[in-house]
C-alpha cells in the first residue's frame, strides 16, 4: 500500500480505489464507512479512522492536498491554505475542505468537488517544484493568505511563516513579505495584507499566541512581546508567554493538557509537575512587578481577560468590554 508521512513521522496508510480494488471493493468499502472504521479523505481515497484521528488538522489537510494533487492535470499551482499545509504553516481555526489551486485570471476555471480554483493570476507569483505540479513558496503563500483571509487567520499564518524558533529557522521574514508585496502592481487585498504585516510577531509559537496578542491589543493593554526569556536568581531559565515591558508584567498562558504533556517529564507524575510549576511561578513573582495567569481558552472571552489583567494591576486604555 502507499503511504503519506506527516511531520510527526506518523505513517498513514492511504487506500486508493483505483490502485487497490482487492482492498477497496464496494462491499468492504460500504461496510467500513458505515461502521466508522474507515474515513473518506476524498473521492477514491480512504484511511483507517483511528489513524486519521491521530493526525493534527494541518496534517489531515496535507494528506488531502496530496491525494487531490494526484488527480490534477500536471502543472497545477497549489496555493493558499493547501500550500500552507505543505509548508507546515499552521492557521487559527478550521482548515478548508477543498484544495486551493491558483490559476490565470483569463481562464475562468470553476471550483468544484475537492478543488477551489482561485483565478487571480500567476504573473510574478513565486513558485517551487511539487512533484508534477508547483507550490507557492512560503513567502508567497503567507502573503496570499494575508491578502484574502479574515484578519486573525491571516495573522496566524504570517506569524507561523516568520516564526523565529522553528526547527531549521523561519520560512520567511516580514522584510521578505513586504518586498514581495511591493514588487508587483497593487492588487486586491494589499491594504489588508499591510495591516497584518504591521502586527506580525516572529515570537508567536502557535496560532493561539497570535490570537492572544490580538485580543490584548483590542482590549487596550500596553505593548507586549511573546516568549520572554529570563534567567532567574536561582539560575533557572524561564520563558514567559507574554511580557509587558512598560509595566514589568509577566503573563503565563496555559493549556489544560500542559501538566499531562510528556514535555514536562515522563518520570514525574502530574502532582510533582504542578508543585514545580508553582515554585517556578513564585520565583518569577519575586522578580517582576506584576504577574497574571490565564488559560488559552480564556482568550475566547475578552471580558474575562480584561478582568483578570486589570485586577492584577495591568492598566488598559479602554473601558471594560
What does this structure look like?
This protein folds into three domains: 1-54, no CATH class; 56-198, no CATH class; 207-311. It has eleven helices and 13 strands. With 321 residues, the protein is α+β, with helices and mostly antiparallel strands. Helix 5 packs across helix 7, helix 6 (151-162) crosses helix 8 and helix 6 (151-162) packs across helix 9. The strands form three sheets. Strands 7-6-5-9-8 form a five-stranded mixed sheet. A four-stranded antiparallel sheet has the order 1-2-4-3. It starts with a strand and ends in a 10-residue tail after the last helix.
Question: Helical percent range?
Answer: 25-40%
Count every beta strand, where a strand is a DSSP E run of 2 or more residues. Answer: 13
Per DSSP, what share of the residues sits in E-state strands of 2 or more residues?
15-25%
Q: What's the number of domains?
A: 3
Largest sheet: 5 strands, mixed
Strand order of the largest sheet: 7-6-5-9-8
End-to-end C-alpha gap: 55 Å
Low-pLDDT windows of residues: 1-9, 256-264
* Mean pLDDT across all amino acids: 90
Number of helices: 11
Shape field: globular
Reading the helices and strands in chain order gives EEHEEHHEHEEEEHHHHHEEEHEH
> What does the radius of gyration come to?
23 Å
- Which structural category fits the helices and strands? alpha+beta
Draw up the topology in text.
Elements (H helix, E strand, L loop, with lengths): L1 E4 L5 E6 L9 H10 L2 E5 L2 E4 H5 L3 H13 L7 E2 L1 H8 L11 E5 L11 E5 L7 E4 L2 E4 L1 H11 L2 H12 L11 H9 L7 H9 L8 H12 L6 E7 L5 E8 L4 E6 L15 H16 L4 E6 L6 H10 L10
Parallel strand pairs: 5-9, 6-7, 12-13
Antiparallel strand pairs: 1-2, 2-4, 3-4, 5-6, 8-9, 10-11, 11-12
Helix pairs in contact: 3-4, 4-5, 5-6, 5-7, 5-8, 6-8, 6-9, 7-8
Amino acid at each position: 500500500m502507499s503511504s503519506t508521512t506527516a511531520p510527526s513521522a506518523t505513517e498513514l496508510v492511504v487506500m486508493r480505489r483505483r490502485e487497490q480494488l482487492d482492498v477497496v471493493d464496494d462491499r468492504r468499502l460500504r461496510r467500513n464507512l458505515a461502521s466508522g472504521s474507515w474515513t473518506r479523505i476524498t473521492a477514491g481515497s480512504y484511511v483507517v479512522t483511528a489513524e486519521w484521528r491521530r493526525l493534527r488538522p494541518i496534517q489531515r489537510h496535507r494528506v488531502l492536498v496530496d491525494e487531490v494533487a494526484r488527480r490534477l492535470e500536471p502543472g497545477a499551482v497549489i496555493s493558499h491554505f493547501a500550500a500552507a499545509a505543505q509548508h507546515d504553516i499552521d492557521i487559527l481555526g478550521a482548515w478548508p475542505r477543498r484544495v486551493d489551486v491558483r490559476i490565470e485570471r483569463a481562464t475562468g476555471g470553476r471550483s468544484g468537488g475537492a478543488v477551489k480554483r482561485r483565478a487571480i493570476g500567476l504573473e510574478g507569483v513565486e513558485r517551487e517544484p511539487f512533484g508534477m505540479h508547483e507550490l507557492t513558496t512560503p513567502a508567497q503563500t503567507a502573503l496570499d493568505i494575508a491578502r484574502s483571509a479574515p484578519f486573525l487567520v491571516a495573522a496566524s499564518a504570517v506569524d507561523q511563516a516568520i516564526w523565529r524558533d522553528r526547527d531549521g529557522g523561519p520560512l520567511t521574514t516580514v522584510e521578505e513579505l513586504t518586498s514581495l508585496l511591493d514588487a508587483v502592481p497593487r492588487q486586491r487585498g494589499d491594504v489588508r495584507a499591510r495591516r497584518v504585516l504591521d502586527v506580525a510577531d516572529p515570537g508567536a509559537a502557535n496560532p493561539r499566541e497570535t490570537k492572544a496578542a490580538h485580543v490584548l491589543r483590542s482590549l487596550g493593554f500596553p505593548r507586549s512581546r511573546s516568549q520572554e526569556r529570563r534567567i532567574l536568581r536561582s539560575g533557572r531559565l524561564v520563558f514567559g508567554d507574554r511580557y509587558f515591558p512598560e509595566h514589568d508584567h509577566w503573563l503565563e498562558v496555559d493549556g489544560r493538557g500542559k501538566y499531562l504533556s510528556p514535555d514536562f517529564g515522563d518520570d514525574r507524575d502530574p502532582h510533582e509537575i504542578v508543585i514545580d510549576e508553582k515554585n517556578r511561578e513564585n520565583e518569577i513573582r519575586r522578580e517582576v512587578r506584576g504577574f497574571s495567569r490565564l488559560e488559552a481558552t480564556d482568550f475566547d472571552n475578552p471580558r474575562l481577560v480584561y478582568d483578570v489583567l486589570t485586577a492584577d494591576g495591568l492598566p488598559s486604555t479602554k473601558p471594560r468590554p
